Amino acid sequence: MNKLSKYWLEEIVIGLDLCPFAKIPYEKGLVRFIESECTDFDEQRGIFLDEIELINESPDSEIATTLIAFTDDGQSFLDFNDFIGVCEEIIEDLELQEDFQLALFHPEYVFEKTQTNDRINFIGRSPFPVIHILRNADIERATKKSTDGESITIRNEKRLKALSEDEIKKIFHFLY
To answer: What is the pLDDT of residue 7?
Structure first.
């Protein structure tokens, strides 16, 4: 994992506790992090297909989750969001929608009905376009032990709003 990816995962996702379910699997070595420099749609689709098949064939005691970062991909957030739609169709075609769901991260991430610079958008901002393959069973177990997704989002928004502009620029230095 390159330095910037490691920083994002350890210092932002886990360090700011933006995903309360990430720390334990990461510390146990159950998070698979794939980086690819490819920019070709078909190659990226192939990488995703390989990963969804691998995680599906692997017990969660070996791979809890997979993150795929496309480190040289300069596509816009909207184009990457469309690509996620293609990946979701793959999951449906493989009849795995009961088993997996996807989250996306992107340097230009924007939640629907928000402004570009709204703090809540930093929850989904990463140095590169990233697909996160999550096991539904793990999400269900984690949410039973924790809070519901809406509460996590609200908590994250409050946490990010509490940071000064200088702190945001320092933490998310890869966006500036």
So the answer is: 97
The amino acid at 44: Q
CA atoms within 13 A on the CB side of 142: 16
Domain residue limits at 142: 3-175
Summarised one tens digit per residue, pLDDT across range 11-31 is 999 999 998 788 999 999 999
Q: How many structural domains comprise the chain? A: 1
What are the DSSP calls for 7-54, one per residue?
HIIIIIIITTTSSTTSHHHHHTT-EEEEEE----HHHHHHHHHHHHHH
Strand partners, 124: none
Which single residue is written with the structure tokens 């177990």? 141
- Please report, as a single letter, which amino acid is at residue 15: G
Q: Locate 8 and state its tokens.
A: 């994002």
